[in-house]
Design a protein that fits this description.
Blueprint: E1 2-4, H1 6-16, H2 18-34, E2 40-41, E3 46-49, E4 52-60, E5 65-73, E6 87-93, E7 99-104, H3 106-124, E8 131-135, H4 141-148, E9 156-160, H5 164-174, E10 180-183, H6 187-191, E11 196-199, E12 206-210, E13 220-223, E14 232-234, H7 236-240, E15 243-246, H8 249-255, H9 263-269, E16 270-273, H10 274-278, E17 292-295, H11 300-316, E18 321-322, H12 341-345
Parallel strand pairs: 1-7, 8-9, 8-11, 9-10, 11-13, 12-14, 13-17, 15-16, 15-17
Antiparallel strand pairs: 1-18, 2-4, 3-4, 4-5, 5-6, 6-7
Helix pairs in contact: 2-3, 2-11, 3-4, 3-11
This protein binds nicotinamide-adenine-dinucleotide.
């Protein structure tokens, strides 16, 4: 079984190139969202604890693989020097059920979330979008910008975070990019003049990070931080004036911005699930002046695409350690042989 550590994933990205990885991941997402009906899926089971949430994200296709991811969200972790979100994941073959790869998924989650935002933005934002506003410059932020610039010609990034150090870090990491960086005093100033607004903040509460009257016509919003029960980022009135797209209604209704609506209202308001835009059965945007909103919570299918691509590239470049996390047996019924019986039972005699 292949083990993909943080170092191995980093090697894969170095060999393949960041932009190539991101473009291939967007391609993999398109492939997998296009065959939406062929996946066995469930809304992710979540365990709520005082400091955050612990989630398991399983999914299975009907040809090759089953994957799952374990992920948390603990918004106050940075106060004790720990990340808000960490994750690990596994890919198994469905024909035998054997695990093929166990992987780090903290970085992979940032990559797949960015690729998913880029895919939605490409389908929903105006073609002539050049100014991006980014609210929340934490761990996800650079990935978001780097992915979005692959689908739109981003010339200006306006950004704001309540933590000035997070903005310093973002500036340091992004200073070599070709777009202009504009540090803002608050979220309202950041979203002024923006064509695309990406909100990726973390608080365990319903917060109006963006207010309704700040949002101008024609904007596309990616709302990423409202992704679990009791945790949203947008003023509720924004939803009513937007074309709202979610990934997977049954999960988004529990976790997304739409969680504060009644089920009836949410059903009425949600225009499409992302796969319907990917297959072309519905259009992301029909008018320049429309406000579009991708209410993103993160679903298991996106992790499937990311794990599958990682596995394929790990094979291609021969990266990752082989470890016996499942026993290799000459006789598949002789499991106990792996225990070196003499040593286990007669030890000390
Ligand atoms: N939808 C998805 O698929 C997906 C995937 C990964 C993470 N997320 C979510 O994205 C969010 C960000 O994740 P992260 O790993 O970057 O976390 P992080 O803790 O590293 O960064 C979050 C940043 O938001 C800032 N912030 C908090 N409240 C703010 C406010 N009102 N205005 C401006 N900035 C504010 C914090 O100071 C921090 O720098 C989390 O809520 C996480 O759950 C969603």
């Amino acid at each position: 079984m292949k083990i993909i550590s943080v170092e191995s994933l980093s090697k894969i990205l170095q060999h393949h190139g960041f932009d190539n990885f991101m473009m291939d991941l967007i391609g993999a997402l398109k492939r997998d969202f296009s065959r939406w009906q062929s996946f066995t899926k469930i809304p992710r089971p979540a365990m709520y604890v005082p400091a955050g949430v612990l989630e398991l994200m399983p999914i299975c296709d009907n040809e090759l693989y089953y994957t799952f991811k374990y992920v948390n969200c603990h918004p106050k972790n940075p106060l004790i020097g720990k990340q808000t979100v960490v994750a690990t994941g596994q890919l198994s073959e469905i024909i035998t059920g054997y695990p093929l790869m166990f992987s780090e998924m903290t970085i992979l989650t940032a990559l797949r979330t960015a690729a998913t935002s880029a895919l939605a933005t490409d389908l929903m934002a105006r073609k002539n979008s050049h100014t991006l506003a980014l609210i929340g410059t934490g761990a996800q932020s650079e990935f978001q910008v780097l992915a979005l610039q692959l689908v739109r010609d981003i010339k200006v990034v306006r950004y704001f975070d309540i933590d000035p150090k997070a903005m310093d870090k973002f500036e340091k990491n992004m200073k070599k990019q070709s777009f202009k960086l504009i540090r803002c005093k608050n979220a309202q100033e950041a979203i002024t003049e923006a064509d695309i607004v990406t909100v990726c903040t973390a608080s365990k509460a319903h917060v109006d990070v963006i207010k309704n009257n700040w949002v101008k016509a024609g904007v596309h919003i990616n709302a990423l931080g409202g992704d679990t029960k009791g945790k949203t980022e947008l003023n509720l009135n924004i939803l009513a004036q937007s074309r709202v797209v979610v990934e997977y209604f049954v999960q988004s209704f529990i976790e997304g911005e739409i969680q504060r609506l009644s089920k009836e209202k949410a059903k009425e308001l949600v225009y499409a699930e992302l796969y319907e835009l990917v297959t072309g059965s519905k259009k992301g945007r029909e008018e320049e002046q429309q406000i579009t909103l991708f209410d993103c919570v993160g679903i298991a299918l996106e992790d499937y695409s990311a794990l599958r691509l990682t596995y394929e590239l790990a094979q291609k470049y021969n990266i990752g350690e082989e470890r016996n996390l499942t026993p290799k047996l000459k006789d598949p019924k002789d499991l106990i042989a792996k225990l070196a019986l003499d040593k286990v039972f007669w030890k000390g005699v």
